[in-house]
Sequence to fold (209 residues):
Amino acid sequence: MSLSRRLLLPSCAAVLVSLAACDKGPTSLFHSMSSPAPSSAADKPAAKATAMPSPTSTAPMPSPDAKLAQALDHLGAKHGPRGEVLTLPSEDFGPGPTKLRSDGATELQHVAAVLRDYPNADLLIEGYTDNRGKERSNERLSLGRADTVKQALMKDGLEVTRMSARGLGPADPIGDNHTAAGREQNRRVELVFSDSTGKFVAAEGHAKS
Fold:
């Protein structure tokens, strides 16, 4: 064997070893590049939010009777055993015994406006006095004041067929007639309202006049 060939053999062997090493490296690198990366939780598509049903209101609508009562309460009426009752004190009358003052007339305008919105509702107007004087005179005075209220409501557009007026004199006192303050309370006119259909809580004595 010549000297040149002997020198080439070790060199070729070294080259083959290097190639083997290089062949292993690219294969591993290719494998790592071709393998898919494990997916993370952030890469996953977000789950669709479940639409929540919109809440619906279950509160019942107020009835016409409830609406009427609320409107009368705003005027100062009180709810009691006879239904809605608005009291006009004696201060609403004067200087004559059956003359209506301006404050009372304004209050009645508001009453008429409410009742015009409820055309089937009726009204009972009751006049009262204290126990001083003769009973017959007190009955005439109380009726005169009740009729004054009725006439004022008619001027405000309320039909006469929807109203009844009566004078009860010293009956049904709400104050002590032995005191000046109590007698003042008893001299009054009460407006008793029906419901929205014309029905009164206590039907006795409610015939229109």
Notes: Strands lie at 78-80, 83-89, 123-128, 163-167, 188-193. The first strand starts at residue 78 and ends at 80. Residues 82-193 form a domain with the 60s Ribosomal Protein L30; Chain: A; fold (CATH 3.30.1330.60). Helices lie at 3-34, 64-74, 102-116, 135-155, 180-186.
